[in-house]
Each structure stands twice: as structure tokens, then as C-alpha cells.
Specification:
Blueprint: E1 2-3, H1 6-24, E2 29-35, H2 39-55, E3 58-64, H3 70-81, E4 88-91, H4 101-107, H5 119-126, H6 135-146, E5 155-159, H7 166-175, E6 179-183, H8 190-195, E7 199-202, E8 220-223, E9 227-228, E10 234-235, H9 240-243, E11 249-250, H10 257-278
Helix pairs in contact: 1-10, 2-10, 6-7, 6-10
Guanine (GUN) binds next to β4 and α6.
Length: 280
């Protein structure tokens, strides 16, 4: 069994981006919006700002109170859409319940949508035109590539069908000619379906969800989960101790997918700058 080192792979990606930005002499700005006091979101936003520093990207934080209205948020996005200093806009999800996330996502200019969440960019991904990468799934693909594995013809099983991870993950695996199955809460015989996987990607959000009986010997297991266990410790979806011995490769949590999501965000922010330079 080999551990996939997401920190090392992401450090290499960020270094490449830093060097490209320096070579091009780009001045790049990323606006990061956080609404409310979700502690996990605060950690993610801080990590995104740190990555900006490493890459030589300016980050502008907009920390808004929990009671912010949809109208106020849309007004801020409008201002950022037309700001010359801001090349990318990221609104950390989840938003407080009273704010319609889809309306917020739709308000971000597709040219600055570095999460690739807007309908236009999701459409690009669907047809295989990766203007902006879906950050977490693209990070997972980099980790799979780092093992030297060719996805073509492999049985790939994705657990979870969210717009952020499951659905775009399936697309990226499909574009590399994987045979892809997407499982979800209504899937029958989940363990049996998962056991077929050469590449198993779990994006469920439940600690200890993936157990050894769900994993084929020699599989690659990618754990997208970010959960807290009973002791409050950060953990993924996979019951690591019992699953790891069966795998050819497995990602740890933390230090697996998480750092890659952020590295891909940096890549998208550089892409946003390029697009805006090209489009005047
Ligand atoms: N919440 C969970 N994952 C993400 C992400 O990739 N981007 C944003 N903006 N919010 C998230």
C-alpha cells in the first residue's frame, strides 16, 4: 500500500503556478467571500489565502456577518465583477440557509468564476472544455495521475452526486475513458457496486462510511470526506486502518485531497487572469 501525498503534489503545482506568474509579471487578485461564522469555512478560507501568498496572488477577504441578505451579497459581487483588481471571485459554501446559493453562484461573472460552479462553466466541463477546472475533482485527477495509473478502461466508482464533487468528478473520469458509476443514498447493494471499483472516490461526508468489505484488493481509494469523528478529530469518509492494507494507493485525511482543491483554485485564478488579458 502506498500513501498518496497530497501536500507534496499540491506544493509542486503551487510552485509551478508561482513561477508562471513571476515569469509573466502578472498582478493577480482573488476576492474571497465568507458569510457567517462556520469554523470549517474559516479554516478553508485561511488556507486559500495562504496559498495565494505562496503563489504570488493578492487575496482580498470579504467577511460578512451571518445576517447578510441576498441583496447585499449580490451587490458586493456586482462590484467585484467590475473591479479591475479582482480577477477571480470565490464565495465559500455553504452559505447561511436564508441565502439562495444558486442565485449567488449565478451572479458571479463566468470569467471570474474560479470555483467553476456557474451553469456556463459547468456546461464547459460537461463538453470537456476545461476553461476552469472543477477544483476538487481536478485535484483528485492529479492525485490519480501521481500514482502513474491510466484511467482508461478502469472501473471507477464515485460515491456522492453533489454539484461540487460527485457530478463533475464523474465527468473528469469519463473524459479519461473510465467506466464510471455514480452511487448515492438510494443505490442498492452499495458495497457490491463499490467492490467492482479499480478507482473508488468517496465524497459522502460521513466518517467511517467506506469499510474494508466495500473495497477490491489493489484498488486506488480517494477520500474526499472532511468530517469530525466522535473525538472531534478531522477524518475522511474511509475507515482508513482497515481499508488501507487492501489498497494499491490511498489518500490520507488530512493531507490528501484538501490541499489539491486549493492548488487547483490557484490554477483557475491564473487562468482567469489570462482570459481577462485576452478579452481586454
Ligand atoms: N465548500 C466546499 N468546497 C468548496 C469549494 O471548493 N469552493 C467553495 N467556494 N466552497 C466550498
Amino acid at each position: 500500500m502506498q500513501l498518496i501525498d497530497g501536500k507534496a503534489v499540491s506544493a509542486a503545482v503551487k510552485e509551478r503556478i508561482r513561477a508562471e506568474i513571476e515569469r509573466e509579471g502578472f498582478d493577480i487578485g482573488l476576492a474571497v467571500i465568507i458569510v457567517g461564522n462556520d469554523p470549517a469555512s474559516r479554516v478553508y478560507v485561511n488556507n486559500k489565502k495562504k496559498a495565494c501568498e505562496v503563489c504570488g496572488i493578492r487575496s482580498y477577504e470579504y467577511a460578512l456577518p451571518e445576517e447578510t441578505t441576498l441583496e447585499q451579497l449580490l451587490e458586493l459581487i456586482d462590484t467585484l465583477n467590475s473591479s479591475k483588481n479582482v480577477n477571480g471571485i470565490l464565495c465559500q459554501l455553504p452559505l447561511p440557509k436564508h441565502i439562495d446559493e444558486q442565485k449567488v453562484i449565478a451572479a458571479i461573472s463566468p470569467l471570474k468564476d474560479v470555483d467553476a460552479f456557474s451553469a456556463v462553466n459547468v456546461g464547459h466541463i460537461m463538453i470537456g472544455d476545461y476553461t476552469f477546472l472543477p477544483c476538487t475533482p481536478a485535484g483528485v485527477m492529479e492525485l490519480i495521475h501521481s500514482t502513474g495509473t491510466d484511467v482508461s478502461g478502469k472501473q471507477c466508482v464515485v460515491i456522492g452526486r453533489s454539484n461540487i464533487v460527485g457530478k463533475p468528478m464523474a465527468m473528469l473520469l469519463l473524459h479519461e475513458n473510465g467506466t464510471v458509476t455514480v452511487c448515492h443514498s438510494r443505490t442498492k447493494d452499495l458495497a457490491e457496486v463499490c467492490r467492482r471499483a479499480d478507482i473508488l472516490v468517496s465524497a459522502v461526508g460521513k466518517a467511517d462510511f467506506v469499510t474494508a468489505d466495500m473495497v477490491k484488493d489493489g484498488a486506488i481509494v480517494i477520500d474526499v470526506g472532511m468530517n469530525r469523528n466522535a473525538e472531534g478529530k478531522l477524518c475522511g469518509d474511509v475507515k482508513f486502518d482497515e481499508v488501507a492494507p487492501k489498497c494499491s494507493h490511498i489518500t490520507p485525511v488530512p493531507g490528501g485531497v484538501g490541499p489539491m482543491t486549493i492548488a487547483m483554485l490557484m490554477q483557475n485564478t491564473l487562468m482567469a487572469k489570462r482570459l481577462q488579458v485576452e478579452n481586454g
